[in-house]
């Protein structure tokens, strides 16, 4: 309850209106159906078992409202949850650790990026996904700089933001992304978004 009310005040201070506050999965599904929000901000753990009810409710809500932007918050890094959340289509999806809320500006930016159709993955999740890859994984075809670029792509960063973070030109970022596409075998196609497919490959689809 305290976390929910605190978030409502934080969002209000950031110019974001909260149209509903709920305490369980069924309440979330109903609120999404009734309010048709621009974004659902969801805790992974909800009553009654406080395991993955929030994630399940988020996926159910999205099934009822295709394309619903969802940003899930978790206390700990749980790679399987992040992967499952994004496996049905990663547009307008995000997964962050609750500690990221402490950096209010970055947190609000993440919410806005997801609401606009972007994908945001917590940097700590990115680190753990990188660390558990085997030598046979396509990720190991990438150079160190390409892995850096892909990790920032997975966080939902634009080419401009990636260039600023790495201290390189946007042209260099585009070159690295092209290399990632080539090494992952992602050819241009009218019906596929190669940037999203590259992130899904990174997540271990």
UniProtKB/TrEMBL annotation:
MF term (GO), any: DNA binding
Superkingdom as given in the UniProt entry: Bacteria
Stored InterPro entries: CheY-like_superfamily, NreC/VraR/RcsB-like_REC, Sig_transdc_resp-reg_C-effctor, Sig_transdc_resp-reg_receiver, Tscrpt_reg_LuxR_C, WalR-like
Transcription found in the keyword field: yes
Residues bearing the modification 4-aspartylphosphate: 43
Annotated HTH luxR-type domain residues: 135-205
GO BP annotations, alphabetical order: phosphorelay signal transduction system; regulation of DNA-templated transcription
Transmembrane segments: none
Response regulatory domain residues: 1-113
Keywords associated with the record: DNA-binding, Phosphoprotein, Transcription, Transcription regulation
Protein name per the record: DNA-binding response regulator, NarL/FixJ family, contains REC and HTH domains
């Amino acid at each position: 309850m305290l976390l929910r009310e605190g978030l409502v005040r934080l969002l209000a201070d950031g110019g974001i209106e909260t149209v509903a506050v709920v305490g369980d999965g069924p309440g979330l599904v109903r609120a999404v159906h009734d309010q048709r929000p621009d974004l659902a901000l969801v805790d992974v753990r909800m009553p009654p078992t406080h395991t993955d009810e929030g994630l399940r409710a988020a996926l159910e809500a999205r099934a009822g409202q295709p394309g619903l932007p969802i940003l899930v918050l978790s206390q700990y890094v749980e790679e399987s949850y992040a992967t499952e959340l994004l496996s049905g289509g990663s547009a307008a999806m995000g997964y962050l650790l609750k500690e990221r809320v402490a950096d209010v500006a970055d947190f609000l930016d993440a919410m806005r990026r997801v609401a606009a159709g972007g994908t945001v993955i917590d940097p700590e999740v990115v680190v753990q996904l990188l660390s558990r890859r085997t030598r046979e994984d396509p990720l190991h075809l990438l150079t160190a700089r390409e892995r850096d670029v892909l990790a920032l792509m997975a966080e939902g960063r634009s080419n401009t933001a990636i260039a600023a973070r790495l201290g390189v030109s946007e042209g260099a970022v585009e070159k690295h992304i092209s290399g990632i596409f080539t090494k992952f075998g992602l050819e241009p196609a009218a019906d596929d978004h190669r940037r999203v497919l590259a992130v899904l490959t990174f997540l271990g689809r």
